[in-house]
C-alpha cells in the first residue's frame, strides 16, 4: 500500500462561508502538503486558489449551496463562470425542493444540461445532494437519474449509514460514489473504500491522513525482517 492510495481519493473542501481568504490560502498550502486529490473552494475564491494550488492539486468549486434551489439558468451561468476561472471539477447541487416535490424530470434534465456544459469545458461534473433528507424511494430514483443522465459521480454531502450500500448497488457500475467523512476513523474510511466508495470529502484532512501515515509506518515496521542477534 502507498500513501497516495488514500490521499489520492481525498477532496479537501474549503467552502465554509465563514472562512477568510487567509484560511483558504492556508488550506491550499495544506492540500499540497498532504497530497490530496483536489480542493473544492467557493466560486469567489477560484482566481486566488488557482494561483495557490498551481498544478499540484486539482481545482474544483460548487454551484449554489444547499438546498440547490437556484434555477437551471443560474446554475448554468455559475458553471460557465467556474470553468472560465479554472475549475476542472464542478459539484452541482441537486435541487432538493424539486426532489421532495417529485419533479424528477426537472432534476434529470437539469443534470443533463449541466453535464453538457462541463463536457464542453473539459471539466468533471459531480452531482451533490444531502441524501439524508431523502427517503429510500427518492434516493434510489436519484441514483437512477445519475446513471441515465451520464453523471460520473454522486456526492452525498450528508447521508445515513444504511443508505451507503444501497447507493453503491444502485449506482454501479457506471456512477461512482463520494462521501463526506469528517469525524470518521481511518478504519471506517478504509471499510467504505473496501465497500466501493470511490472518493472522500473532508473539511479537515489532518486527522484522516495523519492516521493513514501512521498506519503505513506500522505496516512497514511489521514487514521489516527481524534483526539477527550474534551470540
Q: What features would you describe in this structure?
A:
- The protein has 231 residues and is α/β, with parallel strands linked by helices.
- The chain has one domain: TIM Barrel.
- Helices cover 50% and strands 18% of the residues.
- The chain has ten helices and eight strands.
- It has an eight-stranded parallel barrel, surrounded by five helices.
- The longest helix is centred in the C-terminal third of the chain and has 19 residues.
- The protein is globular, with a radius of gyration of 19 Å.
- The model has no long low-confidence stretch (mean pLDDT 94).
Describe the secondary-structure layout.
Layout: H1 4-7, E1 10-14, H2 21-34, E2 38-41, H3 46-53, E3 58-62, H4 72-84, E4 89-93, H5 96-100, H6 104-120, E5 124-130, H7 136-149, E6 153-158, H8 161-171, E7 176-180, H9 186-195, E8 199-202, H10 205-223
Parallel strand pairs: 1-2, 1-8, 2-3, 3-4, 4-5, 5-6, 6-7, 7-8
Mean pLDDT: 94
Number of strands: 8
Strand order of the largest sheet: 1-2-3-4-5-6-7-8
Please tell me the total number of domains.
1
CATH-level-2 architecture: Alpha-Beta Barrel
The CATH fourth-level homologous superfamily: Aldolase class I
What is the number of helices?
10
The class by helix and strand makeup works out as alpha/beta
Report the CATH C-level class. Alpha Beta
Q: Mind summarizing the main beta sheet?
A: 8 strands, parallel, barrel
Indicate the percent of residues in helices. Answer: 40-55%
Give the amount of beta strand, in percent. Answer: 15-25%
What distance separates the N and C termini?
36 Å
CA-based gyration radius: 19 Å
At CATH level 3, the topology is TIM Barrel
Quaternary class: single chain
Are there runs of 5+ residues with pLDDT below 50, and where? none
Could you give the order of the helices and strands?
A: HEHEHEHEHHEHEHEHEH
Shape: globular
